[in-house]
Amino acid sequence: MSFGNIIGGLLNQGMSGQTHNRLRSGAQNADRSGGVEQMLGSFLGSGSGSHGQGGRGLAGMAKDFLGKEQVGGMSGAKIGGLGALAGGLLGGGLGGAAKGGAMAVLGTLAFKAWQDHQNQQGDQAPTSGQVEAMTSVATERLVLRAMIGAAQADGHLDEQEMEKILGQLSNDEATQEERQAVRQEMSRPVDPEQLGVQVSRPEVATEVYLGALLAVDINTEAERDYLQRLANALRLDRGVVERLHGLTESPAP
User: What is the three-state SS of the chain?
Assistant: First the structure.
């Protein structure tokens, strides 16, 4: 079971009026600040959650996209690897199962923010198991739940809208089991505190919070309260939260 393609569908559809702007801004800002090429390569290489396409899944299809000529004879990688991948995700240029590239974009942005904060604090970031933890099916489900909880807070995504998004995914992109799991998540309120209990790694917590941040406009008290409760439940340092908001050009927490 994998939820990467469903998350990609949600981001492509736009869970709030600011979803596309924030994801695009985050990718462009990360590209400009540098140091994301190796991170992105690691997340693409993880290839988690592949459906169809001969098993090539995320890694093969996203790398194909980055390698092809996109604008003015330049490849996606030359334009800006993360920015090009985010643009392809939002514009439909990745197509099909490569919507799973959403987890590569989210993972790279979250890890960039978390690692930069660690470096600023003078802390030595752990180096083992990060990508595997951030691309696991368990993490995909946590990200999805955080996004659904955010949508419940602002009322932008109801069961009818979710069915519309699921209907745009082929059977190769989302199995019936995955679709049913999403419906079950939509049918019950998301408790940020219970969600936080299931997250033990700070880099995963950063990715989960980022998913929720992309899902709301942050223009109501309910949205701000949800994000604050989620950050507290995930035990995120204030500096990490501020860095995520700055990277995606979101209102200050």
Answer: CCCHHHHHHHHHHCCCCCHHHHHHHHHHHHHHHCCCHHHHHHHHHHCCCCCCHHHCHHHHHHHHHHHCEEECCEEHHHHHHHHHHHHHHHHCCCCHHHHHHHHHHHHHHHHHHHHHHHHHHCCCCCCCCHHHHHCCHHHHHHHHHHHHHHHHHHCCCCHHHHHHHHHCCCCCCCCHHHHHHHHHHHCCCCCHHHHHHCCCCHHHHHHHHHHHHCCCCCCCHHHHHHHHHHHHHCCCCHHHHHHHHHHCCCCCC
